[in-house]
């Protein structure tokens, strides 16, 4: 790549003793993988990150299993949605060996009804973002007929609650960057997300949207878990001896498997898949900023206490 030499000149020539300096901007012709991981995605519509079949207005029913399989291996940069400091990640209980597998097993035994839900297709530890823009650590189980979002206590090692969404109810899937309104004072997230909706295009009633005690919100929003960037290489899907038990921290994996599951459903109406920014309605919520900044939705060690 050509190098540019920009010289500083005297402003008025009144200081003859001033000697010009040269600023050289240097960039490697062949950047390394580490340097690429720090660059923002410059591809249109994030084509290098999201599968090709996640396009605006394209229904999943138009895809054959072979098409899904052919694009599921699309190359992508293995970077976390939101990189975190090493000490923060070490304090997360989900990073401890064996706890995630135990969470999956205990939650499956407690909540999965195989006659109702069918077989388990995927297991994920993700970040759920609620309507108040608060992040929550959640275990997600995708089955043949359902999507189960589970709150698991990684400290007490017990499943607490579950939210079951039948796949037949889902009418819209949106993938794209998580963004705030233009007038929002909240710092940009710069991360990819997934929104699953079953409101048939109807707006949420005011009484439901602004009721903090209402849990009947007809959509789910997910982002990758912070541990995605530091997932041990030995636990990656290709190296796992039992891929059926693989647990992913990547929201992209969920999007791929969810669309495949939606395609296999015997559903009379098509599910709309949109590739566009996902709007988070937060203009300046001090509560959510404090909540997310201190990771209050995650189970972690906090000094002498753990919660």
Automatic annotation (TrEMBL):
Q: Which Pfam families match?
A: hSac2
Matching InterPro entries, A to Z? hSac2, Inositol_phosphatase, TPRG1-like
Q: Polar residues bias: where?
A: 30-44
Write out the ranges of the annotated region (Disordered): 1-44
Example of a GO cellular component annotation carried by this entry: cytoplasm
Q: Where is the HSac2 domain?
A: 94-255
Q: Which family does it belong to?
A: Belongs to the TPRG1 family.
What is the designated name of this protein? Tumor protein p63-regulated gene 1-like protein isoform X2
Organism for this UniProt entry:
Frankliniella occidentalis (Western flower thrips)
Q: What is the lineage of its organism?
A: Eukaryota, Metazoa, Ecdysozoa, Arthropoda, Hexapoda
Name the gene: LOC113205329
